[in-house]
Amino acid sequence: MSKVIFLADRRSDRSAWPTPGELPPAGQPALDARARPLRDLRISVTDRCNFRCTYCMPREVFDSSYTFMPHSDLLSFEEISRLAGIFTQLGVEKIRLTGGEPLLRKHIENLVGQLAELRTPAGRPLDLTLTTNGSVLARKAAALKAAGLTRVTVSLDALDAAMFQDMSDSGFTPDDVLRGIDAAASAGLAPVKVNMVVRRGLNDGQILPMAERFRHSGHILRFIEYMDVGNSNGWNLAEVVPSQEVLDRIGAVHP
Fold this sequence. Notes:
Elements: E1 40-44, H1 77-89, E2 94-98, H2 108-116, E3 127-132, H3 141-147, E4 151-155, H4 161-168, H5 174-187, E5 193-198, H6 207-214, E6 220-225, H7 243-253
Helix pairs in contact: 1-2, 2-3, 3-5
């Protein structure tokens, strides 16, 4: 004989949702508009970057005359830590530091150290991660790990030097980024997640070399679809390589 157990789905009961600006009851996590707990928090520590990636901060927009935020307008490390502590009490368990390029923020490891002292209501440490272009990671990895960073994600769009330059429009090379990935792994931030943004007709020929380079590395390679980020990157649907096509290309060589 089967037994039916009826479950109440609070997502359909909008009266149970906190109104905008209302804090949840003590001990309860903050919820989004679909009644899902908010577990992850991304914190941008700077709007500056030393790359001019064509899909993110193209030089024709972010040129020498572009006005970035003055340092005085940025949240201090103490202000960030205070806000992170409040979010942690509301259910956040993971914090990701981003930018711009977060490693351009001076003494970023001091902020990591402050965040590493935070605990969830259950007494657990936070999952602290950071996303970087990897250009200065080689000299920062050990200090970040020592301060309490858990993991790192590195952007790398090509192994070919010329293609990398076309994508990043920077003075760095793929070897600079690879050295950063190796340093992160040596420091104990492995497995490193490697993000490759794929654009048809530009760097999609690097899909297989990237897959082969990281296949047995122990790191996690992720292919990111070229996305529209507003009016700054000249997004074109024709340049999008769907995820399934990426998988098909790799599967044809490495079934």
